[in-house]
Amino acid sequence: MALAITSSTSISRFEASRDQTAKGPLFGSFQPLDRTHSHSTIVNYSRRQYSVKPLNAESKRNDSIVPLAATMVAPEVAEKVEAEDYEKLAKELQTASPLEIMDKALEKFGNDIAIAFSGAEDVALIEYAHLTGRPFRVFSLDTGRLNPETYKFFDTVEKHYGIHIEYMFPDAVEVQALVRSKGLFSFYEDGHQECCRVRKVRPLRKALKGLRAWITGQRKDQSPGTRAEVPVVQVDPSFEGMDGGTGSLVKWNPVANVDGRDIWNFLRAMNVPVNSLHSQGYISIGCEPCTRPVLPGQHEREGRWWWEDAKAKECGLHKGNIKEENVGYLNGNGNGAVHANGTATVPDIFDTPNVVTLSRAGIENLLKLDDRREPWVVVLYAPWCPLLPGKQCFNKMIWAMEGSYVELADKLAGTGVKVGKFQADGEQKTFAQQELQLGSFPTILFFPKHSSRPIKYPSEKRDADSLMAFVNALR
C-alpha cells in the first residue's frame, strides 16, 4: 500500500492556526466560514489530510481514516462543483502558469487527487507539485510491457523526491486470456486498443474510483489529431471518481498550453531526472513494443503506434479527446464516411482504372498459374473492420498509403506489369492468411511471370519509389 506524501510543517501550522482562533468561535462550531479567510482554511485543510489511502479504494469514503478536524468543518472544503463551473474555471486559468494550475488543483482536492505518471516528460508534473509545497500523490500504470529504462526511471524519481509511486497492475487473468487467444503482438494486426484496454484502461478505471480528481501531462501539441483542444481543467468525459456517476471526476491538465520545448527547458533548468530513453531518440514513451525513436523533424507521436493513423493514437486513457465524428478511430483503424442519419457509406479505395479489382476466384486463378503472361503486384487490404454492433470503421493505415499505391499503378501502366487489389478481410481473411501470406494489413505481393509462388513485400516503407524498386528488382 502506497503512502500519501506529507509536509513535516503542515501539522504545526495547522495547530498554530487553531491557537490563533481560540478566543473566537470554536473551530468545531457550525459557523459559516468567513469568505475572507476561506483560502487559508482550505490550505490548512488540504495539508492536514495525510492519511494512508490506496488509489483503488472503495468509492465511498471510509470516515475512520479522515482526520477529525475535517469532519468538524462545514461546509466540506473539497466541495463538489458542477460541470459548468469547471468550464468557467478553465477559461479563468487559460493564461495561468502550470505551477499556478497545479497549486489550485492540489488546494481544491487535497488527498483526493493524484498525478498520473507515465515515466516520460510528465515528470514535470511532479516537479511542479513539489514546488507548491503541498502534499501530493503519484500513481502509474505498470502494463508489464514497459522498457527496462522506464522501470529504472521510476526508482530514480521515487528517490529524488522522497515519494512512493502507487502502481496499478492489469488483471492477470485478463492478460493471460488475451495472450493465449491472440498472442503477444496481436496489436500489430488488429490495432492497439484491445491490448491497451486490458493493460491500461481497466487498471486506470480502478485507480480513479478511489479519487475525485486526477492530473495528467496532456499537451495540445502532443497529438494534433486528438489533443488540440485539451482544456487546463475539465469534468472527465470518460471515467468516474469515488462518488460514482457522470461528472464525479475532475481532470486537470496543467501543461495543456505549454510547448514541448518549454517543458524540456523547464526540466533542464530545474535539474529534474529524466528517462534515459530520451537520449536515444524517444520522445513520447509508452510500452516497449509500441514505442520507437523518432527521427529529427518527426512529430513525437510518430514514435507511438507508428503503424496507425494519427487520429487513432490514443490508448483509451484520454479517449474523451476524440470527437464524436472520429469515434471510429478508437479501435486503432480509423472511421469511414458517415451519412447525416448515422449510417456508414462504403467508398472503395485504390480507385483508379489502373488497379484491377480481383475477386476470390480471380486471386485463386492467379495463384494457380505457373506461367503467367505478365507479372502482377497485388495489395491485400481491409477497408472495413468491426468496431461495435451496427458500426464499422475505415482502416486509415491503408487509406494513408492509397496515394502511393495509385501512383505506383499509374507508373506501371503500359509496362506489362498488372496492378491489382484484393479485399482480404472478413470471410476472406483465413484464406488470405493460409494461401497469400497475409500477416497484417496492408500486405503487398508480387506474382512473377514464371513462378507460381508470390513474393511478399518485406518493408514498412509505403512510398511509391520504394514500391517501384521492389517491383523492378523482381520483374
TrEMBL record:
Keywords: Amino-acid biosynthesis, Chloroplast, Cysteine biosynthesis, Disulfide bond, Iron, Iron-sulfur, Metal-binding, Oxidoreductase, Plastid, Redox-active center, Stress response, Transit peptide. It comes from the Eukaryota. Its EC number is 1.8.4.9. It is found in: Plastid, Chloroplast. One of its GO terms (molecular function) is adenylyl-sulfate reductase activity. GO terms for cellular component: chloroplast. Its cofactor is [4Fe-4S] cluster. It holds the Pfam family PAPS_reduct. InterPro entries: PAPS/APS_Rdtase, PAPS_reduct_dom, Rossmann-like_a/b/a_fold, Thioredoxin-indep_APS_Rdtase, Thioredoxin-like_sf, Thioredoxin_domain. It catalyses: glutathione disulfide + sulfite + AMP + 2 H(+) = adenosine 5'-phosphosulfate + 2 glutathione. GO terms for biological process: cysteine biosynthetic process; sulfate assimilation, phosphoadenylyl sulfate reduction by phosphoadenylyl-sulfate reductase (thioredoxin). Transmembrane segments: none annotated. HAMAP family: CysH. NCBIfam families: APS_reduc (TIGR00424), PRK02090.1 (NF002537). Belongs to the APS reductase family. Reduces sulfate for Cys biosynthesis. Substrate preference is adenosine-5'-phosphosulfate (APS) >> 3'-phosphoadenosine-5'-phosphosulfate (PAPS). Uses glutathione or DTT as source of protons. This is adenylyl-sulfate reductase (glutathione). It comes from Actinidia rufa.
